[in-house]
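Following up on my earlier thread - several people asked me to post the actual chain instead of describing it. Fair enough. Here it is, all 126 residues.
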Amino acid sequence: QVQLVESGGGLVQAGGSLRLSCAASGRTFSMSHMGWFRQTPGKEREIVAAISWSGRRTYYPDSVKGRFTISRDNAKNTVYLQMNSLKPEDTAVYYCAADGRGSVALPLIRNDFGSWGQGTQVTVSS
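Reply from S.P.:
Thanks for posting it. Predicted structure:
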């Protein structure tokens, strides 16, 4: 199991940027694919980025592609989400998650992930 703690959320104007961080503890972080999700009230939790354990492979849905960048620093046990050109519809609670399958393939759906952080609020004002 990997323990995850997100930080970096806040209030930003549309067009602005934020960088989220997710600090992980546990020996398996450097071998775990990681992801970022977001959720708004009444909606399903949706993936916004995923990264392989090595950092060589990434995934983004069309809704954030070109605006969000996921990265990781295995020496610091931290994964990041750089969010640029933010829109009001990006407002959500953002969650960091660690792959729970031990598979080569990138995890892309909620059930692929076995550990979750507590979430950090991102609010984008228009």
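The radius of gyration is 13 Å. That should answer part of your original question.
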